[in-house]
UniProtKB/TrEMBL annotation:
Record's function text: Required for formation of the rod structure in the basal body of the flagellar apparatus. Together with FliI and FliH, may constitute the export apparatus of flagellin.
Keyword S-adenosyl-L-methionine on entry: no
Record organism: Pseudomonas segetis
Protein transport is among the record's keywords: yes
Assigned protein family: Belongs to the type III secretion exporter family.
Listed name of the protein: Flagellar biosynthetic protein FlhB
Biological processes annotated in GO: protein secretion
Length: 102
């Protein structure tokens, strides 16, 4: 019996910072491995969550993620940006100004 009962799946999302992320790639087994290899090659952070992949794999390529998943995906994107040292325009990652500093 194989140690992998279910096929390995992977999805890729495209996020332009303006619109909801869209599904840009999806695949099982060899295609999933190819998606992951490309992500590694371009140093795209990889987040592993089989349940989330199963949900998003139901979408067609180019579809926006469902509104119900906005918060979940936003947290993943924020973490990926943090790993790369990026932050949204206008975002101040430092401590808030203290009124005592004036």
């Amino acid at each position: 019996m194989s140690k992998h009962n279910k096929p390995r799946q992977a999805i890729a999302l495209n996020y332009d910072g303006q619109q909801a992320p869209t599904l840009s790639a999806k695949g099982d087994d060899e295609l999933a491995e190819a998606i992951l290899a490309i992500a590694r090659e371009y140093e795209v952070p990889i987040y592993e969550n089989a349940e989330l992949v199963r949900l998003l794999a139901r979408l067609e390529l180019g579809d926006s993620i469902p509104e119900e998943l906005y918060r979940c995906i936003a947290e993943i994107i924020a973490f990926a940006w943090h790993l790369k040292g990026k932050c949204p325009a206008g975002f101040n990652s430092g401590p808030p100004d203290s009124p005592l500093d004036s």
